[in-house]
Write a structure and sequence with these properties.
107 residues, 4 strands, 29% helix, globular
């Protein structure tokens, strides 16, 4: 058994929720994609594999609650995926707010 003082807690971050949907629109399976740090091309590869597996049996994947960085990577890789729900922006996750200058004209 490991000594609790040497154990490190690592927080997993939500990348997206993946629904595998059949041709009739029924959800066959749901998976949550998480990881530590920012999403990377390994996450894109994982999604590509799931998408390929789903298409081989007549299904498709639909992503929900997708983090903004993953959306950017999917676009960069040229992997088209269906998305629903809102994209989680980094500002939303960090609790940052936009700064407003009093002299700025409103648009």
């Amino acid at each position: 058994m490991k000594n609790p003082s040497t154990m490190v807690m690592v927080e997993a971050r939500l990348r997206c929720v993946i629904d595998v949907v059949g041709p009739d629109g029924n959800v066959w399976a749901t998976r949550v994609l998480t990881g530590t740090g920012e999403p990377d091309m390994g996450d894109v590869e994982e999604l590509a594999r799931i998408k390929l597996s789903a298409s081989r049996v007549g299904g498709r994947i639909v992503l929900d609650t997708v983090c903004a960085h993953l959306v950017e990577l999917l676009e960069l890789a040229g992997l088209p995926v269906e998305m629903r729900g809102k994209v989680e922006r980094r500002e939303d996750l960090l609790g940052a707010q936009e700064r407003v200058e009093p002299d700025d004209p409103t648009t």
